[in-house]
Amino acid sequence: MAQQAAPVMRMLGDFGAGLPQAKLDALRNDYLQKAMQLWQDVMSGKTPELKDKRFSAPEWTANPMSAFSAASYLLNAEFLMAMAEAVELPAHNQEKMRHKIRFAVQQIVDALSPANFLATNPEAQQKLIDTKGESLSKGLQNMLADMQKGRISQSDESAFEVGRNVGITPGTVVFENELFQLIQYTPVTPTVHEVPLLMVPPCINKFYILDLQPENSLVRYLVEQGNTVFMMSWRNPDQTMGDKTWDDFVEQGAIQALNVAREISGKEKVNVFGFCVGGTIAATALAVEAARGRQPANSLSLFTTLLDFSDNGVLDVFVDETQVAQREQQLARGGLMPGRDLATTFSSLRPNDLVWNYVQQNYLKGKTPPAFDLLYWNADSTNLPGPMFCWYLRNTYLENKLKVPGALTVAGVKVDLGKIDCPVFVYGSKEDHIVPWEAAFASMNLLNPKKAKQNRFVLGASGHIAGVINPASKNKRSYWVAQAGNGKNRPKTPAEWFAAANEVKGSWWPEWAKFLAENGGADVPPPTQPGTDKYRAIEPAPGRYVKARAE
Prior knowledge:
single chain; 551 residues; alpha/beta; 17 strands; globular
């Protein structure tokens, strides 16, 4: 216990936290009683009960010492996390500091699991015996290959190729500039809604999360629902783009895409969709246009998007003045935020699932990870321009200025999200650890402040990605909907909304398709060819930009 507690005690000191002797004594006494009981159970031949999926395989309980090792680890983990909860902190910013301590201690606890080491993992040891050493040889090969790649393999990457079996909805690139390509997808219905849909995906990761394989492609579903779909495919930045700013992503990115989609369709307005940071960019772009006296959106849909950054979920542990200032010193004047660093950050949010599970399977047991399109996409990292990334960190996550009317100047104008005038569809995922659904709901109080009936919120099951990619054809999971109400009856808090909501089985995609149809105008014959005389076909979808790998 003392050996494992020592680094935690040093870390608490670094945080300026203290643990009163009385609390420490109480925790220690409780620990010693449980440790004594565990030892007595083992000596009497009683197998410890292991209520943790990491130790669910029969090998852990077949050997008494392995069972004792796992049970001791779980007891130590309980003690260390109890220490993290019991610390006393300075009054200023207390909750944020406690969140950081919990996160840091959890990282230590997860790394120390006996499942992570060959010497203490009976599953890996049995595999070694059964394969006559082949599993160890294969595991070493896997580890060396991953060291060369600079990341842990989470999927059989040889099974997928963008444009071959992911990102394959038919379409044409009709525009490109330094920041993005614009894809116009081929219609498949006899008629289409006359108002097209512009999709603004996140520039962190690539757009084809929305167009994986045909059976789980949101793009394909939307086309089949009679939408003329335009998709932005952000370029994967290289060193030549190291000076790009947030203003560039708004002006030369989202606003340029809006203008091209409007010109090609011949419509004054388009339906606009934004996912995650793509939603933040899209909403900022529409606020910039509103400040210029223009309203190019017929509707706005935001999926797992933050506009109010009061609740940053687990990412909050990476955002404070010190960390942001450090990034600014490195990158604010130019350079790239490497995609591998972003991927490492996101993996650390769920280390048992996204790190240690693959250490155990790939390295200790010598297994090849299964083919999984979502995890293949997850490993296809993107860089970010340093100035853009630093502006985003400071002005949204750290200082939360986007929600304040006039607090930010973007593309030369003061932005006010409340000036965007169009119906809004907001989606949140119930188990999202990156954009908590309550934080996604906060957009309802920023958009259409005087026209509450124009806003609609839908809550889906599962997490940040899996909640969004929930195909209607599979009829899985569930979602929650509620009447928006108006005036004093309108739910203004997530709790009020959820209390009034009804759970519906299946995918929420049809709810969004209905919203798009309501704002899609008349049904008209589909365009006979992509683009126009001005915007000619450049290449087939998914285009070159999405295929570029991060350096």
